[in-house]
UniProtKB/TrEMBL annotation:
GO CC annotations on file: bacterial-type flagellum; plasma membrane
Family membership: Belongs to the FliJ family.
Gene Ontology terms: biological process: bacterial-type flagellum organization; bacterial-type flagellum-dependent cell motility; chemotaxis; protein transport
Cellular localization per UniProt: Cell membrane
NCBIfam families given in the database record: flagell_FliJ
Protein name in UniProt: Flagellar FliJ protein
Ranges in a coiled coil: 106-138
Originating organism: Vibrio vulnificus (strain CMCP6)
InterPro entries: Flag_assembly_chemotaxis_eff (IPR053716), Flagell_FliJ (IPR012823), FliJ (IPR052570)
Length: 145
């Protein structure tokens, strides 16, 4: 039984390590997403400022249409990026939930192993006490004769 519990504990520790790595990866991907989103938003803002500056210097209709169309594509890209945020957040949440479950399982195994060890020590102490009592009784009975 001890070996089986130790085996289960080791497997659970390995699962927990993998869960932590998956959680860290998901968090890193979410961070990367936010970095990329910020870059796109900054690029859009810079492009809008360029459009205003060029507009003040005079733009042809075709240049304006081209720039306006490009801004529309940037807005579309931003919209798609913002939709992806939910997926990234959900992945972090799923990984965190799984990690907490595996951690709970590991702690349960550790608790059961500890309990078994305590029971074993208690039984051993009880057996030793019984032997000491028997030895004392034997010595007393020999001394009384």
């Amino acid at each position: 039984m001890e070996n089986a519990m130790d085996f289960l504990l080791e497997q659970t520790k390995e699962k927990e390590n993998q869960a932590v790595m998956a959680l860290n990866k998901a968090k890193s991907e979410l961070e990367g997403y936010y970095t990329q989103l910020a870059q796109i938003e900054k690029y859009r803002l810079d492009y809008c400022q360029q459009l205003v500056e060029r507009g003040q210097n005079g733009l042809t209709a075709s240049q304006f249409v081209h720039l306006h169309r490009f801004l529309g594509k940037l807005d579309e890209t931003l919209s798609k990026q913002k939709q992806a945020e939910t997926q990234f957040k959900q992945q972090v949440e799923n990984c965190e939930h799984y990690w907490l479950e595996v951690r709970k399982q590991r702690k349960s195994y550790e608790w059961m192993i500890e309990k078994k060890q305590q029971e074993k020590l208690k039984a051993e102490a009880k057996r030793e006490q019984k032997q000491m009592d028997e030895f004392s009784t034997l010595l007393y009975s020999r001394g009384a004769k």
